[in-house]
Amino acid sequence: MNIIPHINAGNDEIISKLGNLTNTFPYHSILDYYYIKNITKALSDIIFSYNESHGEIARGRKFGSPGEQEAARIIFENMTKLGLWTYKEKIGDAKPWRPCNLIASKIDVLDYKLIINNKTSNRAIVCSPIFALIGLRLRPLKLTQNFSYTNLTIRTDHLDSCDEKAPYVILTGKKDPRINTKSPVSSQTKDTGNMGIVDDIKKMFDRLKEYYAHPYWRGSIAYDFNDDEHDMWGSQSFVPKFAINGSIGRMLNTSIDNYTVDFYLNQRLNLSVDSYNIIGQLNGTDSTKTVIVCCLYDSWWCQGTGDSAIGMAIVMGVAKYYMEHHLIPKYTMKFIGFGGEEYGMCGSRYYQAIHRRENIIYVIDLNQLGFTQKDPRLTLEIAANNQSFLDDVWKVVQRTDYKKLTENVTDIVPIFMKNGHISDDRSFASKRSNASCKTVCFLKNGPWLMHHRDGLNHTAGDVFSYFNSTDVNAIGDMVLNVTHYLTYDKSQDKLLREDVVTETAISLLKSFLFLGGRNY
User: Fold this and answer.
1) Is pLDDT above 50 for 114?
2) 235 pLDDT more than 90
3) Which residues contact 227 (CB under 8 A, 6 or more apart)?
């Protein structure tokens, strides 16, 4: 039996057989599908262990929260079981004068409530809060700020401050991205440079001017275009901000004069966030070079299945494949779960800051994968920071006929982004970070209607029920192909044991005959 247990540029025979058999048998990834699904479920379910019924604010796996620490424990435990040399690095745990310590700081929401009042009843509303950047006007920032207001009127825009001297909140609706959605293009080049930072600074000044121009403005409420979900991510605000479901927001908007608002929000500046990068290391034949396969494992205040429990589980699925098949890579490999990505790529920025002497040659980053959405159509972007590297990776990516396997629901395009995508790869992509590091990011992009959303007691929005087995399997094969292409050491072929070869053949046979690509 002459089957080599790896998928790489020289393994076209197995790949072609997979493609042919999909016409007869349901498609199934060579990675351990059940392992990936179970890790995804464990990470998604964390919000139910750390939620209101247990006396916690249900933050999911948010940066520095008990839920994120539980996710770190799960990842650490399972990486260790795989046989990887596993360790944790605390984000910001460096000498005081190092700038990377500033990464491990944030404003924590400690407690909050939003109540909608009408003439006959008071109703507490399920929502997600956004902290206020500063406290009352002309007062210095305190470590702890408490905001508490009652009987606030509701407006849809600001009036001239001299027209009415009554405290109020601003009600706004998020635009439905399905309106005027552009069709994706077949290939793209994106070079945002530092425009993101410039835009953020400009917006910050605009908000600051708005804040001081309207002294009776006490807070904002943003309602979603979805009925049962609210968007947890919002731009930083100088007043407390709450996100609510679309059905409630539209009810308020149609008759704002009949309602008033009460709310309180307590927040604290946390200068020592307890968050970790989880690293599972597999030594290669050349220990002077490192390849990182990574994903964020934090989330916003929701299950965070697509963003990005699935991606983290696929990273671990690739690690499991390497360990079970006793593959020794050409370079040292690090399978990393980065903390705090949603808070500004904190974990990856910290890692890059304290590992500047490490010769990181490739970073393979995963983010927002494993789900489908037919309307509007999404695009799986394969984004790299080097054009020739992108060309090579794209050839390997195409061997997994992604559009065919997933029934042409999602587009797939290569994108050159010299500074990386809006993901953890960006911390390594620019020449300022590492001139020799080549990065690639797998990220499903476009107007994803469930992005950063929560609802119905954490069962709506970005949730586990959107886990799509076919998409997960196809992505898993694709990432394994690229990873193996970049790390394959041909000198190790002669070391393969017959029992490993046999195990691989049996695994493939089971995939074809029993497991398949069914939606479990």
Assistant:
1) yes
2) no
3) 245, 246, 247
